[in-house]
Specification:
Blueprint (H helix, E strand, L loop, with lengths): L1 H7 L12 E9 L7 E9 L3 E9 L12 H8 L4 E9 L6 H12 L5 H7 L7 E13 L2 H9 L8 E5 L28 E4 L15
Parallel strand pairs: 3-4, 3-5, 5-6, 6-7
Antiparallel strand pairs: 1-2, 2-4
Helix pairs in contact: 3-5
Organism: Adineta steineri
Keywords: Signal
Pfam family, one: Chlorophyllase
Length: 211
């Protein structure tokens, strides 16, 4: 994963120390529909400068909080990358999440709103600038299905896609027949994509391990 980040964000000081990492949460982000809310968990270097941005959609298509992945996302931020995690998406049917990914990305890159405003209003990172010209998207498990649906319509502002243990469909067992991959037919997007299939390991899972 970190190799992919270094390729995308070549002008960033990858693998050097990012200094202190700050994490803060922003609850109940409403973009257009007041019944649909996002909670954001942001992990960022605090050293002044411009940094690439990685959006993260966790397991269960965003129902799992980003904080369940604290070790991983903090390690990513330590590579001089701003990580913005979408957590606990509410009141959205799984098959509709891709639509709201599009709305979210349109909002997050707005020059006087989105990430720019979030950082300007947070004192610990007031001199940190999110570089939205170097924007990537990371997904885990069934979140890859929603991301894939989005990419099948547009690549939008994304320069890189990373899918960890991607699941195609609403559930990992294929009970709900909603698939976007039909091998050997390739998917239509050409955004550089890294697929990580970690499988199982010998580390015991916790009681709150996301699917």
């Amino acid at each position: 994963m970190f190799f992919a980040l270094s390729i995308l964000f070549l002008t960033t000081r990858c693998f050097s120390s990012a200094g202190k990492i700050d994490h803060w949460s922003v609850g109940n982000i409403i973009i257009t529909d007041p019944t649909i809310r996002f909670r954001l968990d942001i992990y960022s270097p605090t050293t002044p400068g411009s940094y690439p941005v990685l959006i993260y959609l966790p397991g269960l298509a965003g129902l799992v909080p980003t904080t369940f992945y604290t070790t991983m996302v903090t390690t990513i931020a330590e590579q001089n990358v701003i990580l913005i995690g979408i957590s606990k998406i509410e009141n959205i049917k799984p098959e509709k999440i891709s639509i709201h990914i599009a709305t979210f990305l349109e909002w997050i890159i707005k020059p006087n709103d989105g990430a720019t405003r979030l950082f300007a209003e947070h004192k610990a990172v007031k001199d940190v600038l999110p570089n939205m010209d170097r924007l990537g998207f990371l997904s885990h498990s069934s979140a890859a299905h929603s991301l894939g649906q989005y990419l099948n319509t547009t690549c939008g502002p994304l320069k890189l896609v990373i899918m960890m243990n991607p699941v195609d469909g609403i559930d990992p067992f294929g009970i709900v027949q909603d698939f976007i991959t039909h091998p050997p037919t390739p998917l239509p997007f050409r955004t550089p994509t890294l697929i990580i299939s970690a499988g199982l390991d010998n580390v015991s899972v916790g009681k709150k391990t996301p699917a």
